[in-house]
């Protein structure tokens, strides 16, 4: 059984359509890259997958559990879901709200009620993995864009989620930093995590051979291909390079 | 491409989490997210609820009309007067589409009901006549302000105030406030969502989090202000807030305003001759 | 704390607009000076107004399962400066009244007086005092608590005076039907016990965060050559007082503190007497002193309204001149 199953899932904003009739099955341990033009609904899908909002129509099932409005309205269920799914926002500013990087990363583990030693362990590990150990005593608000991205990932990672959702994590990073981040994500995938990320950097992402889910401008899924399948379709590749 | 392998993952990251769950009574985030989503949906509505194609009043006239109406209702304590004013208002309501009229009625009844609940205890202090008069007047005022809100966009309000010669600085501040209410509201919503994602257990110190939330929002406001000022300067801002002229029929304006002006005159002289 | 329409008599509303007008004038002058130092203060006025809107909208959890709101008057005063806070909060209140139906349109002056003037000013004064005593946080806490409570007290007084100020010949109140003995305790109880603490805790926590993360973004009070604003304020009041007298002579009595106090005492005693008759007689006796001349009361209202509009127009002219020179 797939970890994530979407059936005829649509999402409507007050004035516009966000997602239109998606059918998608994502398995545990996959590396998925969402691509598509601006405004095609990638961020919207990630928000629904993370359980922040219910879909307007259709169903979303996570690990066999259908995520309904009622399910999300129950604080306990909602928190259980959030323990399994982590989301790095497109705008990382909204995500960093503590007064120091250490506190930022420790925020999640503290909620879980871990011991101080465990929390320190997790914080140090996450900072090391994201190459941000030297930022530990800085104020997140004053970090640069790329530094914020790394700290945001560290802070989500500290919760050890089963599924990691990332909304354009490569934006604003140098090529070297992009490669570092992708390698880390690939390692996490190898350890059994499910990675779902939205990105525009086709060239960089290709290296980790993800499964590509491609949206069109009408908020629908246009193609769903593995990296090998995509390699056989030069015109599709050419299109992705323009995104 | 050379992909450098990072150090091995720590043990805790390789094992699945043990799910915990703790009972929770009140979730302030969910409640506020809902509230804010409603506000943002309302702010996103660019067109007025009513589309007056033939009978379009200039924004300043509708503002004046609202002022006169509310003042007259507040000043009088004569039931006949209230009746006449109510009729006038009901006439305006005819313009609304049926569904809008229903929506109007629903929220109007609700707000009037609240006013009734507030004054009801005074029944034992002052008797039924006063309570009734008070509720009638409050109801009428609420109806007129609600009608105004339903038929006026933010842009209309701005050009109305502009036509009434409000200072530019003030208009500009109001315009900035309306625009940034959306942007800051959106930012706050996103921050709450991010917090929600990582708040995997009941918050131990909700106030600490709220303080952080709004502290962040202030810093964002400050950043917006710096950006906006730079943008204003870059576009040659000179303290003048310009808006497009509205094309409306003057004749309609005066015709609509006439009954109100007549009422004002009658009210003033009626006072002298003891009519009200 | 937003007073809706029809709870205050139009005369009271007019008076309160008159009372706020000079404060607005001074605020504009002060903020202009502030803009010269820190250019972004100009757009910050509008943005802070929307910030205040969001603060007032946010439901804060309180023990017992219900929620309360903060107003943020004191907080804004500390963050962007007291005078800028006056203007920003005024804009917030106007938006709320016109577009969201929170607070009355006629009662706008009253709401502005309570929440946009009294609250930030009281709060900021306490904060400065605390700063001088090297305990700014305590000052801020006390300021936020006092600010909202003084504002609530004033709102209670405004509402409670209505049965005295406006009633029919038989003594039936025309606007807010509750006397001071109801409104003041009701307002104070709610704010002293709950809303005040919520406001104070909220204010200190937000301040603490900003202070820690970006202390330079806080408003820095100018060096102590700032006795000027008070001179402006006094001057403004002096210029306006003849107008105020004109308006008050025709419509209602002037509100000198002594008289107000006297009336408060009188009201209290009369309300404690059980029979409605005593109340009615007492009202009548008071009313005699307060209707001066033979002008019908409605003409008085119109006159005061015109006065308010004129003051507003004058205020505008001053502003227009300056907004052109900001080039
Ligand atoms: N808060 C909102 N209110 C209304 N419409 C929205 C909102 N957020 C997004 N939309 C609309 O929904 C559609 C999908 O938006 P979404 O943010 O999911 O796109 P995206 O694929 O992430 O784009 P990008 O690549 O630019 O990040 C767009 O048409 C957008 O205009
Ligand atoms: Mg996006």
What report would you give on this structure?
Chain B: It is found in: Membrane. Chain B: This is Energy-coupling factor transporter transmembrane component T. Chain B: It is a multi-pass membrane protein. Chain B: The chain crosses the membrane at residues 57-74, 108-125, 257-275. The complex is a heterotrimer of chains A (243), B (276) and C (327). Chain A has a single domain (4-241), classed as Rossmann fold (3-Layer(aba) Sandwich), CATH 3.40.50.300. Helix content of chain A is 40%, strand content 23%. Chain A has 10 helices and 10 strands. Chain A has a 6-stranded mixed β-sheet with strand order 6-7-8-3-9-10, sandwiched between helices. Chain A is globular. With 276 residues, chain B is an all-alpha fold. In chain B, helix 3 runs antiparallel to helix 7, helix 3 runs parallel beside helix 11 and helix 4 runs parallel beside helix 7. The longest helix of chain B is centred in the middle third of the chain and has 31 residues, at 168-198. Chain C is mainly alpha-helical and 327 residues long. The longest helix of chain C is centred in the middle third of the chain and has 34 residues, at 180-213. Chain C starts with 9 loop residues before the first helix and ends with a helix. Magnesium ion is lined by residues 42-43, 90, 167 of chain A.
Indicate the topology.
The complex is a heterotrimer of chains A (243), B (276) and C (327).
Chain A (H helix, E strand, L loop, with lengths): L3 E9 L4 E10 L4 E5 L6 H8 L7 E6 L2 E2 L2 H5 L1 H10 E4 L12 H12 L3 H14 L15 H13 L5 E5 L7 H16 L3 E5 L3 H5 L4 E5 L5 E5 L1 H5 L2 H8 L2
Parallel strand pairs in A: 3-8, 3-9, 6-7, 7-8
Antiparallel strand pairs in A: 1-2, 1-4, 4-5, 9-10
Chain B lengths: L10 H4 L13 H17 L14 H17 L3 H15 L4 H22 L3 H4 L1 H24 L2 H10 L4 H31 L7 H29 L15 H23 L4
Helix pairs in contact in B: 2-9, 3-7, 3-8, 3-11, 4-7, 5-7, 8-9, 9-10
Chain C lengths: L9 H28 L3 H17 L2 E2 L5 E2 L4 H8 L1 H19 L7 H25 L3 H25 L1 H4 L14 H34 L14 H24 L5 H16 L3 H15 L6 H29 L2
Antiparallel strand pairs in C: 1-2
Helix pairs in contact in C: 1-4, 1-5, 1-9, 1-12, 2-4, 3-4, 3-5, 3-6, 3-8, 4-5, 5-6, 6-8, 9-12
The structure holds adenosine-5'-triphosphate (ATP) and magnesium ion.
